[in-house]
Each structure stands twice: as structure tokens, then as C-alpha cells.
């Protein structure tokens, strides 16, 4: 990634049927809330934006660092601390 991330986009799309995967059915709202809380607690200068589709429904819940950064697929609430660690590392130039 050439630019430092300034935000995290979290897909919160809900298709309302178990036969069609969606990020919301996988808990993306709770993930977005946990990311916001974790960013605040760690003093990281990123925002969380909830978006209604990242085009990767079968791989959800999906997140993406913005601008133009890494995707996180099949994200679970338990993954949030590791994602925040990775963001801290990127911001430190690692």
C-alpha cells in the first residue's frame, strides 16, 4: 500500500436470506463497532465507514483499509485485535 490508511470500510450489506451470503449476517455491524472502539482506545487516527457492498459477499464479512489498501475477508469479531495490531504496524511504517 503506497498511502497510509485513513479509514476502514466495513460492509454491512444484509441480503435477508441464509441462502445468499452477506456481511451483516456474519456480524459485520458488531465488527464495525469493535473497530471504532479499538481505534479510539488505541488512539489510532482512522475512521470506520459502513458501506452496503464491497462486492465480495461470499467472502464476508469484508473490510478494507482505505485508500486502496488491504482487504480482510471472512472477518470475525475475534479478529479485531489482530487487525488493529496490523494497522498500528502499518502506521509505524512496518
Q: What topology does this entry show?
A:
Layout: E1 7-11, H1 28-42, E2 47-51, E3 63-66, E4 71-72, H2 80-91
Parallel strand pairs: 1-2
Antiparallel strand pairs: 1-3, 3-4
Which structural traits does this protein have?
94 residues; alpha+beta; Glutaredoxin; 4-stranded mixed β-sheet; 2 helices; 4 strands; 17% strand
Q: What does the model show?
A:
The chain has one domain: Glutaredoxin, CATH 3.40.30. Helices cover 29% and strands 17% of the residues. It has two helices and four strands. A hairpin with a 4-residue loop joins strand 3 and strand 4. The model has no long low-confidence stretch (mean pLDDT 91).
Short description:
The protein is built from 2 helices and 4 strands, in the order E-H-E-E-E-H.
Helix percent reads 25-40%
SSE order, one letter for each helix or strand: EHEEEH
Shape: globular
Summing up helix and strand content along with how strands pair, one would put the structural category as alpha+beta
- Tally of helical runs: 2
The number of domains? 1
Q: Provide the CATH topology.
A: Glutaredoxin
- Biggest sheet features: 4 strands, mixed
Q: Name the poorly predicted regions.
A: none
Number of strands: 4
